[in-house]
Write a structure and sequence with these properties.
Blueprint: E1 2-6, E2 9-16, E3 22-27, H1 38-44, E4 49-53, H2 70-83, E5 88-94, H3 96-107, E6 112-118, H4 127-140, H5 146-153, H6 156-161, H7 163-174, H8 178-189, H9 194-198, E7 204-209, H10 217-226, E8 231-235, H11 242-245, H12 247-260
Parallel strand pairs: 3-4, 3-5, 5-6, 6-7, 7-8
Antiparallel strand pairs: 1-2, 2-4
Helix pairs in contact: 1-12, 2-3, 4-8
Length: about 260
């Protein structure tokens, strides 16, 4: 188990692969821990140093302060970068992870030299939408919204044919702490990094699942259009988590992007 202190919080992370200067940092989505990247890392193999992190209130990381913002989540990533003495990174942000990546680059533009955004946008949803979700969780727990969330996360074929694996993802979702989940919902609702996206100046890959019910294709494509020179790819037969449903396709696109932008 790998942990470090970020202010008051104890943050769980995973650092594997060759201990080189360049590292890929994976930032996962709302309601998941860093195991959401397991299948993709299997595809990538040991080519790169990879670092994964559990957000506050997710996985094994604490949320003692009981307040979460995109800024505090980005600060945790920044503290991890310093803890590992990383100087050259590629950030991979999935959903809220994309917001964290954009905020990190805003504060520390000289360390991140490549960016991969997955099923995300600089502004996700409306305040009313997030307020409704927060109220449902307060009233019935995460279990009360789990069916709706899983329907957004996965493609129709996955929902139909992978019932056993679906239960594992339900377990991951519902075991997220209430404070961590609600805190991240509040952070997303307050966040608009559109202006930051417009000034991104680095090789950027943007991908989205064809059947994403959380951040639909048009929303993610609009985000890609804000970033000069970005590469936009749609992953067929995938929902909000293409790294889970189509790890081989996603891995191939990642490797091509990384190899072409050395």
């Amino acid at each position: 188990m790998q942990i470090f202190k970020s202010g008051l919080e104890v943050i769980h992370f995973d650092d594997r692969g060759p201990k080189e200067d360049f590292a890929i940092i994976f930032l996962n989505s709302l309601g998941t821990d860093f195991r959401v990247w397991d299948k993709l890392l299997h595809v990538l193999g040991d080519r790169f140093r990879t670092v994964r992190i559990d957000k506050r209130g997710h996985g094994l990381s604490t949320n003692y302060k009981n307040h979460i913002s995109i800024e505090s989540l980005a600060e945790d990533v920044s503290n991890l970068v310093d803890y590992l003495n990383l100087k050259n990174i590629c950030l991979v942000g999935l959903s809220i992870g994309g917001l964290i990546a954009l905020e990190f680059i805003k504060k520390r533009p000289n360390i991140c030299n490549k960016l991969i955004l997955c099923d995300t946008a600089p502004k996700i949803g409306s305040q009313d939408m997030w307020a409704d979700r927060i109220n449902r969780v307060k009233e019935g727990g995460i279990e009360a919204i789990s069916d709706d969330i899983l329907a957004r996360w996965f493609s129709n074929s996955f929902l139909k044919d992978q019932s056993d694996e679906l239960q594992i993802w339900r377990s991951m979702l519902t075991r997220t702490t209430i404070s961590g989940y609600i805190g991240c919902c509040e952070a997303i609702s307050e966040c608009d990094l559109t202006e930051q996206a417009k000034i991104i100046n680095m090789p950027t890959l943007v991908i989205v699942g064809e059947e994403d019910g959380s951040t639909p294709i048009n929303l993610v494509k609009d985000a890609a259009n804000l970033i000069k020179g970005s590469i936009f790819k749609v992953i067929k037969k995938a929902g909000h988590l293409p790294c889970v449903e189509q790890p081989s396709k996603v891995g191939s696109i990642f490797l091509q992007f990384l190899e072409n932008n050395k």
